[in-house]
Amino acid sequence: MGARPRYGWTSSLVTAVLAVAGLVFAGPAPANPTAGMEVGDDNSVCTAGFAVQDRFGDYYLLTSGHCDAGDNAEWTDAGAAPLGRIFASENNGDDRDAAIIRLAPGTPPPSGGVDGRYRIRDVLRPDQIQVGMPFCKVGSQTGETCGVVTEVAGNVVVTNLFSIEGDSGSPGFVTNPDGTVSAAGILMGGPEDDDDTTYFMMVEPLLREWRLQILK
């Protein structure tokens, strides 16, 4: 798959970060968080992946693991409204690159779907993602761009869609004939000096491992 990723801020070693979510935040109240929105802290700007919920009813936003600097920083939306903190992250620089932002008490519940436009029908299993199938993402920096799957390597989906720095974490999906989408991946990055090759980590194994349910 070539060099990876062009968007990394952390080391290539596996990291696992558990942080206590903040209870009190200052600043404006955010709108309902949704997949495809801009999220960031003092160190980075990334994109919120799919909104998810655990079995206890807590809400999270997926994003890329390399967006996590490991400093328990507060994450905000593009308007600086507080969201929460990284609850867990993993980044081995190869096929594991994901994090979850635990939404703090008082944060509006996230909207399901993608970018307020697409309802999620289902989540694709690894065996359902095939070379040649159309593939799209919604990123906070470049919006919606589409291409096709050019390679599947382990948990990584390689596509020829356009993305740039700041799109890390974007929800990757396949559009269905009925206008819904099937969730497929979380944007990891791509080769240096090639914005038209973009890697995604498959989301279904991650949801299963972390015992999370996607909000549709």
Automatic annotation (TrEMBL):
Q: Does the keyword Signal apply?
A: yes
Q: Which CDD domains match?
A: alphaLP-like
Q: Does the keyword Signal apply?
A: yes
UniProt keyword terms in alphabetical order: Signal
InterPro entries the UniProt entry points to: Peptidase_S1_PA, Peptidase_S1_PA_chymotrypsin
Q: What span is annotated as the signal peptide, if there is one?
A: 1-26
The name this protein goes by in its record: Trypsin
Question: Which organism is this protein's natural source?
Answer: Mycolicibacter kumamotonensis
